[in-house]
Amino acid sequence: MAYSYKNSKGQTYYLHSKDVTLKNGRRQTIYFFARDVRSGSLDSVPGGMRVIETKRTGMPVLKKA
After folding, report:
1. 35-53 b/e with 16+ CB inside 10 Å = b?
2. What is the rounded distance in angstroms from the CA atom of residue 59 to the CA atom of residue 65?
3. What is the phi-psi region of residue 16: left when phi exceeds 0, alpha when psi lies from -120 to 50, beta otherwise?
4. Of 62, 61, 11, whose CA–CA distance to 36 is shortest?
5. Can you say whether the dihedral through the CA atoms of 25, 26, 32, 38 is positive or negative?
6. Residue 32 burial (CB < 10 Å; 0-12/13-18/19+)?
7. For the chain, how many structural domains are there in total?
8. pLDDT in tens, the chain (65 residues)
9. Residues facing residue 29 across a β-bridge
10. pLDDT of amino acid 1
11. Is 10 buried (19+), middle (13-18) or exposed (0-12) by CB count in 10 A?
């Protein structure tokens, strides 16, 4: 089951990850929230991270703990 977060506006978002290649060739994992469950969904928040909500839009984002 994908990790879900319900923001203050009542919208539910699901946590996902994706491995990308940067311009310099280095590989990096990015984390993002989406309103629907897609491939790459995560069951929990990665270690050392926490979920916060942006004040202006209410969009959840990950931040280092």
Report:
1. eeeeebbeeeeeeeeeeee
2. 18
3. beta
4. 11
5. positive
6. middle
7. 1
8. 899 999 999 999 999 999 999 999 999 999 999 999 999 999 999 999 999 999 999 999 999 98
9. 19
10. 87
11. exposed
The H or E element containing residue 14 is strand 12-21
15: containing domain: 4-64
pLDDT for res 23: 97
**Which of these, 18, 15, 16, lies nearest to 4 by C-alpha position?**
15
Q: What is the pTM of this model?
A: 0.89
Q: Report the distance separating Cα 47 and Cα 31, nearest Å.
A: 13
CB 33 within 8 A of CB 14: yes
Q: What gap in Å lies between CA 20 and CA 31, rounded to an integer?
A: 11
Phi, psi angles (nearest 5°) of residue 31: -120, 140
